[in-house]
């Protein structure tokens, strides 16, 4: 099967969206009927592909209503999970145990944002969206420093899973490290009305704060979050598309030099994109906007077409087709500044200068317009668009160089095998500072993210999936990287408790104190929190629910067998062998 002009036409149609187009908003994550409720994530499918059910959902709008909801569940011994408006988390952290469980949605608890200029803080209801919070703070002449790249999150959900941008400067790039106070609603005794608010302040309740600011939703329901802010500032961004030679020797200095810098590595293309991102003097003009290409609205028909094309490349095992796609995608990103716009509409050249609020996060595909119902986020499950896995690993700085060298060795065996990563966003490299949060990072760290194709069916193997699996096991096993709590396949969390050491036990102490009846725990959140490996079954390694130890954990009928890694020999991966089909 040949992919030349047709491939390039489809990809260019997918990418060429010059104007900012607002689109069909994502579907609410909770849907109910007379039999009960179902909760999903933004991608429409959980890692195990099983539905997540609950008896009912409640939508508090105030802290008093939130207290009443928790009190009702506590009095009636119900299991509870908190659900946000966006439900962007990949693992099943929002899935409760049992069909009688209750959901508490914070989607309507979003009316209060209070700025204290003299104290340089802002306090928001937990359901306030990240974009709403940014705009309110910027409108008052201040800026929030941390810069998570995706703005489709609420402030409560954002900190619960350790979301972050990129920075080793100041308090660092993780939003939770800028939290100075939290109100948490927890179960209580009957004499206390079955629920109460625990008000936690930095400097007064540090042990509680260190547990609650990255809590995975298992300690209670976050009601209010207080963040530190600064006087408004501008940023200046330039992307340098260049060779990946000496990347392993450059990354550390890059992270130190640029306050918000990152690196995007396209290993199959032997290209590194260095983001030079610093504060800009206030007297320098600029009205730049960050409208990252991956988060822009896309015509629904084009999203479907690109998905169909990718499926065809998978079926035909066309490495050449995937590499052409990677070349086209990378060229377009270079041409358009990866979505940066100097004047809010067009990219005209570097540097792109603008306010912190316009450059720190993006997500234009989230917002609706009555005039455009033919566009959406490219992964919207209603339209059968993109479907992908995301691996996010957090390394100590001292071990990251060797990981990069191992990936280069794997790449050099046959670069075409990594084109499946590069057609998405390559390997994004970011920097986060050491944290006091018990479930955060104890020292300065480097984070990688990479996305790759996910099949429509759990038992369908993927082209060159062994390469992604070997990289995954290199990261989490050989180099002891920690998994991002809101991303990753199940295998990323195996052995996670040992990686956090004494801090994990400190977190459990607080958990047992605040929720002794484990009202906010479920088998799904326990599976992630404790990194438990469940019973292996046929095909379990195909979607990262196990590491294969037998051919049947792969897909021998399709020619995929359990084999050792090519560079990391201790890895066990599902590799295609045409000779054995």
TrEMBL record:
Its cofactor is FAD. Residues 50-232 form the FAD-binding PCMH-type domain. Keywords: Ascorbate biosynthesis, FAD, Flavoprotein, Oxidoreductase, Signal. It catalyses: L-gulono-1,4-lactone + O2 = L-ascorbate + H2O2 + H(+). Coiled coil: none annotated. Pathway: Cofactor biosynthesis; L-ascorbate biosynthesis. GO terms for molecular function: L-gulonolactone oxidase activity. GO terms for biological process: L-ascorbic acid biosynthetic process. Residues 1-23 form the signal peptide. PROSITE patterns: FAD_PCMH. InterPro entries: ALO_C (IPR007173), FAD-bd_PCMH (IPR016166), FAD-bd_PCMH-like_sf (IPR036318), FAD-bd_PCMH_sub2 (IPR016169), FAD-linked_Oxidoreductases_BP (IPR050432), GULLO2-like_C (IPR055154), GULO_Plant (IPR010030), Oxid_FAD_bind_N (IPR006094). Its EC number is 1.1.3.8. Belongs to the oxygen-dependent FAD-linked oxidoreductase family. This is L-gulonolactone oxidase. It comes from Eruca vesicaria subsp. sativa. The lineage of its organism: Eukaryota, Viridiplantae, Streptophyta, Embryophyta, Tracheophyta.
């Amino acid at each position: 099967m040949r992919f030349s002009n047709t491939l390039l036409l489809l990809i260019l149609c997918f990418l060429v969206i010059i104007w900012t187009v607002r689109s069909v908003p994502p579907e609410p994550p909770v849907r109910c009927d007379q039999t009960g409720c179902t909760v999903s994530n933004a991608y429409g499918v959980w890692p195990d592909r099983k539905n997540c059910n609950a008896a009912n959902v409640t939508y508090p709008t105030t802290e008093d209503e939130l207290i009443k909801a928790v009190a009702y569940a506590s009095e009636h011994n119900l299991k509870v999970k908190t659900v946000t408006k966006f439900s962007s988390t990949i693992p099943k952290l929002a899935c409760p145990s049992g069909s009688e469980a209750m959901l508490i949605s914070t989607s309507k608890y979003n009316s209060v944002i209070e700025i204290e200029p003299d104290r340089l803080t802002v306090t928001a209801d937990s359901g306030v969206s990240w974009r709403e919070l940014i705009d309110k703070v910027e409108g008052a002449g201040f800026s929030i420093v941390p810069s998570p790249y995706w703005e489709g999150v609420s402030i409560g959900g954002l900190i619960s899973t350790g979301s972050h941008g990129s920075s080793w400067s100041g308090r660092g790039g993780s939003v939770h490290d800028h939290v100075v106070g939290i109100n948490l609603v927890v179960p209580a005794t009957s004499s206390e009305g079955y629920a109460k608010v625990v008000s936690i302040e930095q400097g007064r309740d540090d042990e509680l704060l260190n547990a609650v600011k990255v809590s995975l939703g298992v300690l209670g329901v976050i009601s209010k979050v207080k963040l530190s802010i600064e006087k408004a500032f501008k940023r200046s961004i330039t992307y340098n598309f260049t060779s990946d030679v000496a990347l392993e020797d450059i990354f550390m200095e890059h992270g130190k030099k640029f306050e918000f810098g990152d690196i995007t590595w396209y290993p199959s293309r032997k290209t590194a994109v260095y983001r030079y991102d610093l504060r800009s003097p206030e007297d320098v003009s600029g009205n730049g906007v960050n409208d990252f290409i991956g988060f822009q609205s896309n015509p629904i028909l084009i999203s479907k077409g690109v998905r169909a094309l990718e499926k065809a490349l998978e079926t035909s095992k066309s490495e050449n087709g995937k590499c052409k796609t990677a070349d086209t995608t990378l060229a377009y990103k270079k041409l358009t500044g990866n979505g940066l716009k100097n004047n809010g509409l067009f990219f005209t050249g570097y540097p792109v200068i603008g306010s912190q609020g316009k450059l720190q996060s993006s997500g234009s595909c989230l917002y609706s317009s009555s005039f455009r119902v033919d566009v959406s986020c490219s992964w919207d499950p209603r339209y059968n668009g993109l479907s992908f896995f995301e691996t996010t690993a957090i390394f100590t700085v001292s071990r990251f160089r060797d990981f990069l060298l191992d990936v280069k060795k794997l790449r050099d065996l046959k670069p075409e095998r990594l084109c499946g990563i590069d057609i998405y966003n390559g390997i994004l490299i970011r920097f986060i500072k050491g944290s006091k949060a018990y479930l955060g990072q104890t020292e300065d760290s480097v984070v990688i993210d990479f996305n790759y194709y996910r099949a429509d069916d759990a038992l369908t193997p993927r082209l060159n999936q062994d390469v992604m699996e070997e990289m995954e096991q290199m990261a989490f096993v050989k180099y002891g990287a920690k998994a991002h709590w809101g991303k990753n396949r199940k295998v990323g969390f195996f052995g996670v408790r040992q990686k956090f050491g004494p801090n994990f036990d400190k977190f459990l102490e607080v958990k047992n104190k605040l929720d002794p009846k484990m009202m906010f725990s479920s088998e799904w959140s326990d599976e992630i929190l404790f990194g438990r490996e469940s019973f292996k079954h046929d095909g379990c390694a195909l979607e990262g629910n196990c590491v294969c130890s037998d051919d049947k954990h792969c897909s021998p009928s399709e020619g995929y067998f359990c084999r050792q890694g090519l560079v990391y020999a201790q890895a066990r991966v599902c590799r295609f062998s045409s000779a054995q089909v």
